[in-house]
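Support case: EPZ complex. Customer-provided input:
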Amino acid sequence: MDKFLIEGPCKIKGKVKISGAKNSALVLLAATLLFEKPVTLKNLPRVRDINTMLNLLKSLGSKITLSKDRKTARIQNKKKLKTFASYSLVKTMRASILVLGPLISKFHKSTTSYPGGCNIGLRPVNYHLSALKKLGMKYQIKKGYIHAKSNGRLLGTTIKFSKISVGATENTIIAACLARGKTIIKNCAIEPEIKDLTNFLNCAGAKITWKGRTCLITGVNSLNETDYSVMADRIETGTFCVAATIAQGDLEIQNLNPKNIKTELNILKKAGAKIRVFENKIFIKGPKVIKPIKNIKTKEWPGIATDMQSQLMVLMCKANGESSITENIFENRFLHASELQRLGAKIKIINNKATIQGNTKLIGAELMSSDLRASVALVLAAMVSRGKSTINRVYHLDRGYENIEKKLRKIGVKIKRLK
Ligand code: EPZ
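Agent response - structure generated as follows:
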């Protein structure tokens, strides 16, 4: 298993280009199952989760041609596809559940492996299933699989989520696109990735409009040939912004939409970062003294992203005073805290609230990755720790960060991949 060797503390300066958003690319790829006409998706990030989704689509019968740089995929589906999403693929990536909505909508049947647990929380799929059921899907869970079917086309209806869920919103929107009549989905997640999904579907002829957290969909019979570019990764953007802030860095971050990271940039400004924002780039300089922040609370968009929580925790370890972070989305998303403690961090956790003492002189150590964002937090921490750190199990990082060690090396981080 690959490891990273990082020698800190590092000086950070230079330019970084942000890749396409993993979480948008995944759902756009799943949505291509609705199409009979060819779809071209550009700006795909070259990360492992995208390969998993491409393999899943191939296993269903999609014909996929990748460009030489693997950032553009042309997807052409046969009239009939397979409808079986196997355990072997789903178990490696929970986002595979996103094929259920399009399969049931387009082919009126699907056998999809039920996603298992995950390090950061239980992550059930009950809202996905109940919303699809309201659209006309019947299902049974047997031997670890969701056996689903519908009586022909799904039928538009009104759905209200009792809790905001990114994945359930996405699955339901995709399914409703080809349903008969109107669907109204209330209390939707409205993360930028979801707006990217509805923009993509509208480009292909879907009829989707938004009113706050309500999504209105008028079903269409089919979707048109489409060419679409995936939005920039806002979490990768935020991660590099934290890197600059924590290490007195000076970065120009390119190819992004600053509006998608506004809330997190405000936090970094409070911490002392100097930030200049342009249409598709950010200049950011880290302060000499990082200010502590009390009451950082993760929340659904437009709140602070849970996917930025671990990076902000590392930043607060280096602030000159006490900070606190409350995790409101996932029940077990402080896995990085005990690894940060191995570097010397002073973090106390009570329920979903972490109190961070700050003013910590971090010292390099051997560390273990547990999930994607926890792993990137360890990279940031190792960068500002004195001495060598080894980060084990970096396959977690490879799932969602394109060429992270190359990008970091280019801006001055002493990082090596050990095979
Ligand atoms: C998406 O996960 C992202 N994944 C996550 O990114 C992200 O952290 C999360 O949204 C929140 O922003 C992808 O887009 C592929 P949810 P998702 O449904 O859709 C509960 C990363 O690091 N819930 O909004 O699975 C759930 O347990 C990842 O890139 C139910 O109870 O998140 C959680 O507590 C990790 N029942 C909360 O809702 C359901 O049916 C929000 O989850 C669905 C969700």
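The first helix runs from residue 22 to 31.

Case will auto-close in a few days if no follow-up is received.
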